């Protein structure tokens, strides 16, 4: 198992928002975490990234106890997060944003190779490499956030709502690119409100409801599960 979360509890102040969740991700998988607003999806990703400290439980990655590491050590362990809301640096160019993602890598030739790969994945970014990131469209900013996350050469990529606010055609393009990234050997954990698209892309999924995992399984089984269909797929 590449990632194993065991009985994870997270509190913000006095309020516990994750009540003992357990999940695992095998190398090479795309695993999606579904759930309504406030279920704790982002909190789960932030815990993996070391940005939020669990109060109980453990997060194991490739033999490392992630819950004991600082956020920059998690990046060195080759985990990278593309945060919700994109968070690109608006007053820097596309290329400067991309380069910032490589802060954990020393090898200049490797940085150049990865950058070329990212521009191949997202030709729109290549065309706009000198443009200020703040002037990119929403979809382009999303591409930039994912591209920047890839610059640290992650084994595990954490994506928080990559389709948020995007037109359907762009959602398809982003999801196709996530498939390509995964096919190149990067394991992916995908948090999404767009449950149908996420389940079509992912191998397996977990459903989080107010801080607890209520269901998990193969995506094809979740897609036909009546509970999932009613709550997350609009009953369709
Ligand atoms: P969304 O889809 O709306 O982003 P989510 O499933 O990602 O939701 P989280 O962002 O993990 O949910 O939030 C889980 C709960 O924790 C929510 O009730 C939220 O209000 C609360 N929460 C999140 N961040 C903080 C914080 N920094 N301080 C206090 N409470 C927080």
TrEMBL record:
<keyword id="KW-0547">Nucleotide-binding</keyword>
<dbReference type="GO" id="GO:0016887">
    <property type="term" value="F:ATP hydrolysis activity"/>
</dbReference>
<keyword id="KW-0029">Amino-acid transport</keyword>
<dbReference type="InterPro" id="IPR003439">
    <property type="entry name" value="ABC_transporter-like_ATP-bd"/>
</dbReference>
<dbReference type="Pfam" id="PF00005">
    <property type="entry name" value="ABC_tran"/>
</dbReference>
<dbReference type="InterPro" id="IPR027417">
    <property type="entry name" value="P-loop_NTPase"/>
</dbReference>
<dbReference type="GO" id="GO:0005524">
    <property type="term" value="F:ATP binding"/>
</dbReference>
<dbReference type="GO" id="GO:0015658">
    <property type="term" value="F:branched-chain amino acid transmembrane transporter activity"/>
</dbReference>
<comment type="similarity">
    <text>Belongs to the ABC transporter superfamily.</text>
</comment>
<dbReference type="InterPro" id="IPR052156">
    <property type="entry name" value="BCAA_Transport_ATP-bd_LivF"/>
</dbReference>
<dbReference type="GO" id="GO:0015807">
    <property type="term" value="P:L-amino acid transport"/>
</dbReference>
<dbReference type="InterPro" id="IPR003593">
    <property type="entry name" value="AAA+_ATPase"/>
</dbReference>
<keyword id="KW-0813">Transport</keyword>
<feature type="domain" description="ABC transporter">
    <location>
        <begin position="3"/>
        <end position="235"/>
    </location>
</feature>
<protein>
    <submittedName>
        <fullName>Branched-chain amino acid transport system ATP-binding protein</fullName>
    </submittedName>
</protein>
<keyword id="KW-0067">ATP-binding</keyword>
<dbReference type="InterPro" id="IPR017871">
    <property type="entry name" value="ABC_transporter-like_CS"/>
</dbReference>
<dbReference type="InterPro" id="IPR030660">
    <property type="entry name" value="ABC_branched_ATPase_LivF/BraG"/>
</dbReference>
